Amino acid sequence: IERDLLLAFIFILPGPLLALLIAFIFPKCLLSQLYICMLKFLIRAISTSLDMGSWEEQVRQFLLDEEEHDDELFLVILPAIIPYLSEEKEPIHTSSLTSAKKVREILEGHESWCKSEFRMEPAIFKAIANFLRGENLLRDTRGVTVEEQLGMFMYMISHNDSNQMLQKAFQNNGETIHRKISEVFDIVPTLTQRFVKLPSSIQIHTKISTDSRFMPFFQNCIGAIDGTHIPITIAEHRAPPYRNRKGTLSHNVMVACDFDLNFTFVSCGWEGSASDAGVLRSAISKGFSLPEGKFYLVVGGYANTSSFIAPYRGVRYHLNHFRRRRSSQSGYENYKELFNHRHAILRNHIERAIGVLKKRFPILKVGTFHPINNQINITSATVAFHNIIRGQNGEEGWLDNQPEGDNNYPNDTESWKRTKRSNCTSDVGCLQ
To answer: Can you tell me whether residue 256 is helix, strand or coil?
Structure first.
């Protein structure tokens, strides 16, 4: 009896649930009928265990009793499941331009096509793919090469495409697309660590050493720091901290760059309501440091220290303020204006670097469909690829024809205000 009860707990309790589940999903499935037969057998075996001499006798008696019924059941079920088993599914991905062919066609076609699809020249794309393969960061698999995998990711961050759109573009199923994109996301921290950093040897940059306006006053300056807001899509109940002062949802990104427009540091993920100074303080507490005696240029929103030099407050600073000055007023009112003007000229490098980054990767101008962690990783990935492309002497003149103003995109401040005036009921809905 104890043995029978144990078997009941092992087989009978899960059995009905599984049988009912299978029968509900596949009412004509033979497996559900087999579970029901097994259940009947165990129930009868336990109920008659006191009357029959042995377990073998119970099995034999049960099979004899059920033989005729099971034969009839089999004759009913078999014709029903044959059409289901033999049914051919209609293929979804029917284009002759497979993923491999598409990537090959882009890389072997006109250079402008590769710039449009992958945001870089074909030679640079191939060099990056070979690097990722050589460093064992990505691997060729039976169905997807490293070039295809890199192409999917670059296409996604270049066009803000969803999984479904990538399936159509690369003729792969959704699971493969998701897995390969995730594998690239996994190596983003490694790419950032390798390519977003200060050079090992810091010398006075030629932009300073060859210009008397900056030398020797800025000889220890190694670049500039600024914050930029990247739109995000996030659940409504988590949205308030991400509301920035312009009224949109974003995360606050702090970047540092040198005078070659290469990024030397990036900090992503802070809520849009966080101050630039707070993001910098957090970065310093987590290990962001400068070589001794060197400094970055920052705007007035940051504290003025020996490592982060801000302009004089209450004095003209922005370059357009000086451009508006008439020729008869070409001089500076005081030494503070002179310092601020030269400070602004050098600090303008960070604004140019951010501008190039957003032109190359327009995904940074809109909220995306990705989980919040991936949205943050996208920013880090674009910064890393920006440096890699520049390290390969990637041409940037073509980016001048790319949209510049955020007002051209549906998730920008003006769009949000217009949508809100149209009685949009939720921030997430407005972003989408």
So the answer is: strand
